[in-house]
Amino acid sequence: MSKNETGHAKNIANANLLCTHLIELGVKYNPSNQKLLLTNLQNIYNNAFTHQETVNNSVAPYSLAVDHREKLFAPVSKKITKLRKMYKATEGVTVAQLEDFMTIARKLKGIKKVSPSVTTDPNEEKNQISASQMSYDQRTNNYDLLISLLESTPGYTPNETEYQVATLKQEKTDMLQATQSVSDFFIPLNTARTVRNNAVYNSEDNLVDTFNKAKDYLFTILDGNSLEYKAISKIKFKKQ
């Protein structure tokens, strides 16, 4: 790990490290700028540390929600392939209905329709993936469109539970709930990050700027060849 490692936690940890050095310097550290007093620097550090902890505590539930949604959506593409075969085997399904099914299925899979003139080279097929239809909201909406098509097809009454309309509707509900859960956990995480960023980088008396000023002052009172100077010079505060 680089000694100059950047990052929110590193800036905050370095603030605590600098405060420790200032304690060791004792009365030698005596800035006229009241904002650079040790007590104020310690308050800035403690405030930033608390905000970082809030961020950390918000990450886990958000990550779990994201992982759950990923797991929920992962089988969709394979299921669509099986549903296509089930729909194709349904009595009375027309070519036009099957094409309607495929239009929705391609959107769900994020695949563009291949024209006869397009190469079937595997490397070229990879380029057919389109992100435009692959957001979770869009995929859920397209899943709903597919359900509507199946529901409106009189002959579509499979005996297998996993292909029945009621099952597909429950899966759609689960998709909606999973996406909502991600949003619900993202909001407090985003708020916590904003508050943390303001404390460390953006506010008028933010941690990075204030501690860099403290370092500037230290360099005026320390001998450039001293161990204290060399140790403090390695403590970095950087904007992200």
Instruction: Work out the number of β strands.
Output: 0
How much is the average pLDDT? Answer: 89
H/E series, N to C? HHHHHHHHH
Overall body shape: rod-shaped
Structural class call reads: mainly alpha
Q: How big is the Rg?
A: 29 Å
Gap between N and C termini: 18 Å
Largest sheet: none
Query: If helices are DSSP runs of H or I spanning 4 or more residues, what is the number of helices?
Result: 9
Strand content: under 5%
Describe this structure in words.
This protein is an all-alpha fold. The protein is built from nine helices and no strands. The protein has helices at 8-25, 38-73, 76-88, 95-109, 122-126, 136-151, 165-202, 207-221, 227-233. Residues 1-5 and 113-133 have low confidence and may be disordered.
Short description:
This protein has 240 residues and is mainly α. It has helices at residues 8-25, 38-73, 76-88, 95-109, 122-126, 136-151, 165-202, 207-221, 227-233. It is rod-shaped.
Write the layout of secondary structure elements.
Layout: H1 8-25, H2 38-73, H3 76-88, H4 95-109, H5 122-126, H6 136-151, H7 165-202, H8 207-221, H9 227-233
